[in-house]
Write a structure and sequence with these properties.
Blueprint: E1 2-5, E2 8-11, H1 15-27, E3 33-36, E4 53-54, H2 65-75, H3 82-101, E5 127-128, H4 135-149, E6 153-156, E7 160-167, E8 170-177, E9 182-186, E10 190-192, H5 213-221, E11 225-226, E12 231-238, H6 251-255, E13 259-261, H7 281-295, E14 300-303, H8 309-315, H9 317-325, E15 335-344, E16 347-349, E17 361-363, E18 368-369, H10 381-400, H11 410-415, H12 430-444, H13 451-466, H14 477-498, E19 522-526, E20 529-533
Parallel strand pairs: 1-9, 2-3, 2-10, 3-6, 10-17, 16-18
Antiparallel strand pairs: 4-5, 7-8, 8-9, 11-16, 11-19, 12-15, 13-14, 14-15, 19-20
Helix pairs in contact: 1-4, 1-10, 2-3, 3-10, 5-14, 12-13, 12-14, 13-14
This protein binds flavin-adenine dinucleotide and succinic acid.
Flavin-adenine dinucleotide binds near residues 43 and 206.
């Protein structure tokens, strides 16, 4: 096994990973940052973000931190942590301005003023976007190019982090695998910026890399995991087959005036919420689910013809083009849409600067659960959380870690011996295993849950696990992903069984009411077993 040593290791190259690598490197006096990513640089959920990023700017007289806090807390269904919401909202101005200074181009009008848009459950226009509906691509492209040019950031692409190295209750590094060779990288600062887990569901807006790896790694290392039952389902993924299946139709389309309708053109959202089509996401998703159950169809429809056709094409060039490729002219036709797994509110319990329950281990972005989103994320708050937590983490590292290094010990060497051992020759059909897991999660742990559906899913996951006999070392990257997907799926099912109420995105038919007091649901691995902790 080859050993490497770095000042900081960033795992993942979405917004959280790219931005934290840039900011940490800016503060380094010596040493280097290592950035490891599973696919190519920038391939991530971040790349596909559409609607935009929340920007509570001090010079926007229409908006205020207080208003953003109120909207975030309302969407979060009682489970958001006030101090975290306040911190992230207050830092929005500084961080957005920093991103602009790094060369991220948010859309501007003819007078060079930033354009703000509206999305569900926001009381004012406060969302910035790039290239109309390709915000993620705009941000990721700029940050990826900065990282690519930076010689103090070593980049390892197509490389997966497979295990965190811990000793004396401290994280000291990570084992990485490029499909052929293993390396152990030691560092006092190990950052999980590994994104979400949409791929554990049959229908998802997330790309292939979103398999929950960082969550499984953190859990296996003994980190506290928070609110694992809260998966956000987006109400409007494109309901077509083929390459564009589940392509996201941004909430910003409803923000600009589109409305959900049944096949006969009846707009139904007024039956569900006073904010109608701009109600919080969990409410719109359940409304779509109910309408689909009523009609027996596998989709509902989005009527974007209500928006001026020139504006529509200019504001949503990407969505217009993808729909057209599927014979849908959004200025004339209804868009068939259905809910799909989109975002994970739960995760590794972390502070706003990424600190977790394990010293030396940090989690930022979608992998983290800071308490910002509570039980339901407000649209466009995720990119903001990625940016603010990455920025705060870099400051924390500067003040606390800058000159420390990690020594290789006999214990560490011993614990990594397994990676030099030969595996048996069984090669698992991971595509089939992943598909089975995705069906189990979609059917039993999806938009609507009950004790019965959850317990059935739990048994099915146990049975699936018995078909896959790998405890630690795997044969290839896809096997590692499946192992992680199984771990994370089991955490979600158990957390969902344990939360005996309905709140935000977690809806149970057997416990349809929300308890008066909102409590976090925390899990930790103790003696190899899953335990709930306060
Ligand atoms: P990601 O961007 O997902 O990056 C994770 C990275 O980690 C990837 O590079 C991945 O390859 C890598 N990785 C994972 N596991 C490993 C491993 N084991 N080893 C090495 N590397 C690993 N949010 C908003 O706020 N506004 C929006 O408009 C918006 N639109 C969205 C549209 C779509 C279609 C989707 C899917 C999400 C959208 N979201 C939006 C959510 C938002 O994009 C994500 O929550 C956010 O980008 C997450 O960023 P991240 O850096 O935490 O993770
Ligand atoms: C969207 O554009 O609808 C996604 C926005 C988000 O997930 O925040």
């Amino acid at each position: 096994m080859e050993y490497l040593n770095y000042s900081a290791i960033v795992i993942g190259s979405g917004l959280a990973g790219l931005y934290s690598a840039i900011k940490i490197e800016q503060n380094l006096q010596s040493g280097k940052v290592l950035l490891i990513t599973k696919a190519d640089l920038g391939e991530s959920n971040s790349r596909y973000a559409q609607g935009g990023i929340v920007a509570v700017l001090k010079d926007n007289t229409e908006d205020s931190v207080a208003s953003h806090i109120t909207d975030t807390l309302n969407a979060g269904a009682g489970l958001s942590d006030f101090n975290v919401v306040k911190y992230i909202s207050e830092y929005s101005d500084e961080v957005i301005k920093d991103l602009i200074s790094l060369g991220v181009n948010f859309d501007r009008d003819e007078n060079d003023n930033l354009i703000f848009t509206l999305e569900g459950a926001h009381s004012v226009k406060r969302i910035l976007h790039c290239n109309g509906d390709a915000t993620g691509r705009g941000i990721e492209k700029r940050l990826s190019s900065l990282v690519a040019q930076n010689e103090n950031i070593t980049k390892l692409q197509n490389t997966i982090a497979v295990e965190l190295i811990t000793e004396d209750e401290t994280c000291k590094g990570v084992v990485i695998f490029d499909g052929a060779n293993y390396k152990a990288v030691l560092s006092p600062v190990v950052i999980l910026a590994t994104g979400g887990l949409g791929q554990i569901y049959k229908n998802t807006t997330n790309p292939k890399c979103a398999t929950g790896d960082g969550l499984a790694l953190a859990y296996n290392a003994g980190a506290i995991m928070q609110d694992m039952e809260f998966v956000q389902f987006h109400p409007t993924a494109l309901a077509v087959e083929g390459e564009n299946k589940n392509f996201l139709i941004s909430e910003a389309v409803r923000g600009e005036g589109a409305k959900l309708a049944d096949r006969n053109g009846n707009y139904y959202m007024s039956q569900y919420h006073e904010l109608e089509d701009l109600a919080p996401r969990d409410i719109v998703t359940r409304a779509n689910y109910e309408q689909m159950a009523k009609s027996g169809e596998d989709c509902v429809f989005l009527d974007a013809t209500l928006i001026d056709s020139d504006k529509l094409k200019k504001r949503f060039p990407n969505i217009s083009q993808i729909c057209l490729k599927n014979d849908i002219d959004i200025s004339k036709d209804y868009i068939p849409v259905h809910p799909a797994a989109h975002y994970f509110m739960g995760g590794v319990k972390s502070n706003v600067d990424g600190r977790t329950s394990i010293k030396g281990l940090f989690a930022i972005g979608e992998t983290a659960s800071t308490g910002l989103h509570g039980a339901n994320r407000l649209a466009s708050n995720s990119l903001l959380e990625c940016a603010v937590t990455a920025y705060s983490l870099a400051k924390y590292v500067k003040d606390n870690y800058i000159s420390s290094t990690i020594q290789l010990t006999e214990n560490i060497e011993k614990s990594l011996k397994k990676y030099s051992q030969e595996l048996g020759f069984i090669e698992y059909d991971t595509d089939a295993l992943k598909a089975e897991l995705q069906d189990i999660m979609w059917n039993g742990v999806g938009i609507i849950r009950s004790e019965e559906s959850l317990k059935t899913a739990n048994t099915q996951l146990h049975n699936l696990k018995t078909k896959f006999l790998r405890n630690s070392k795997c044969l290839n990257i896809s096997e590692y992903e499946f192992k992680n997907m199984l771990t994370v799926a089991q955490l979600i099912v158990n957390a969902a069984i344990n939360r005996k109420e309905s709140r935000g995105a977690h809806y149970r038919t057997d416990y349809p009411y929300t308890k008066d007091i909102a409590e976090h649901n925390c899990i930790i691995k103790q003696q190899g077993e899953l335990s709930f902790v306060r």
